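User: Receptor ligand binding region domain-containing protein, Stomoxys calcitrans:
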Amino acid sequence: MKTFLRSLALLFSSSLYHSSVSSAPSYAANKFCGVVAFLIFYSAACLHQLAEAETFTLGYLTGSQRTPGNLDYQRPGITISGAISLAVKEVNEGELRSLGHSLDFIVAETYGDEVNSIRQTADLWTRQVVGYIGPQETCVHEGRMAAAFNLPMISYYCTHRDTSNKQDFPTFARTRPPDTQISKSVVSLLMAFNWTQVTFLYLDHPDSLYQPVADTILSILNCASITVRDVKTWNTIYHHGFMANPFVDLVEQTFKNTRIYLILGHYYEHVGLMVALYNRGLLDEGDYFVLGVDIEQYDPSKPDKYLRGLLLEKRDTRAELAFQSYLAIFPTASIKFAEFAKEVNKYMELPPFNFPNPLGLFGGTKQISAEAAYLYDAVHLYAKALIKVLRHGGRPRNGTAIIEAIKGTKYRSAMGYHVYIDENGDAAGNYTVLARGLTCNLKNKTVPGLMPVGTFSQTQSDKLPFF
Ligand SMILES: *[C@@H]1O[C@H](CO)[C@@H](O)[C@H](O)[C@H]1NC(C)=O
Ligand SMILES: *[C@@H]1O[C@H](CO)[C@@H](O)[C@H](O)[C@H]1NC(C)=O
Ligand SMILES: *[C@@H]1O[C@H](CO)[C@@H](O)[C@H](O)[C@H]1NC(C)=O
Ligand SMILES: *[C@@H]1O[C@H](CO)[C@@H](O)[C@H](O)[C@H]1NC(C)=O
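Assistant: Predicted structure for Receptor ligand binding region domain-containing protein:
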């Protein structure tokens, strides 16, 4: 086939050459010959491509149903699944299509249960999928299976930390950033200000999501040679204005030994520390500074809420003054999410999902969560890697090759900002630095609030991001 094509191409180019140098009478005949040769060449090339056109079928592991008797399961699938249809449709209209291929997916129900999720992972393998999008809540055993099958697995949901280990999980990547990713940005900001000695305060609660983040921050501080002068914790969630302030004691125990405080907890707990420092008179001279860290996304619609307690409506002037000595790092807010949400809602009501929208009659749309964006990102990330592997002559069913093609890449997330995939195949997240500034509140009055002052950028996967 190949030699046949080559000789046709030769014929085609030589006839063109002749036509340009030969005399007028033979020109028409030569041109005709060239056109015929071109047509044969073209149709042969077309057939050649069709013969290799392939549909790549992904397995979508999702929890959208409850097992009989289970009334609690949240079923995240019913509020995000439209995102996979949207992404697959876009991929099929893009670069993959120009290569003559297309993408498709099979839905596999996990009921939010690990055993079902494992069984579905095996079942999809027998159905010859080229990779997995998912799983949802659990991923450790599923990830090991994907490694054994050498199939890529890109989770849009699971944040279990074991799967970051590429020794055991060489074919696993994820688009939902684990909470611990914020730690790198925290350390990078400290270094940007030459703050080499800190006292670290964090919420230490058995069910809290902050514990693993605190561990990661401590280990990265250690690697970066930043001295931790003291570590203190508080154990119950503090609601500023409603209970005794635990930071009064913590400040008393630490202020002699400290200039820079690093606090990890809910934003309204940070208010407690700021007020405690202010009341102790420590903020008057500008000798003390606080870096606040929270893992909940920044809310740009209410910048003033960060300077008071949760549920408190009244402004707190002491807190407003205290926040002059404060910077924060929060996950970046999503941008233009409403348009994306509308599209996802549209596809949710179509096959294969057919999830009804009870609010549709009234023109309302279902609230969709950030995981819809991560699901959408997972499909696009897979497609990009697949194209890269195909172009380099690799095997598309080689999970290691697909994940290698994903590591270290940057993409524009459906969240509206850029995200970097690190050396472990984990989305690095995108974080914003906030400082006190002036803002308009809901009543159109100018009040102080926390405003974005910068983001981080990443140049190399194994390095800390730059502020
Ligand atoms: C941090 O220290 C380095 C070297 O000592 C200096 O060049 C840099 O300007 C300092 N940065 C700040 C923000 O003080
Ligand atoms: C799969 O990809 C990896 C990494 O690119 C490569 O080292 C390996 O040889 C490939 N295996 C097969 C069977 O193609
Ligand atoms: C975060 O998003 C912004 C805006 O898209 C981008 O400039 C920046 O590089 C991103 N940061 C990282 C670490 O990817
Ligand atoms: C807020 O104030 C601006 C200028 O003072 C005005 O143009 C705008 O209409 C006001 N908005 C509301 C909702 O009152």
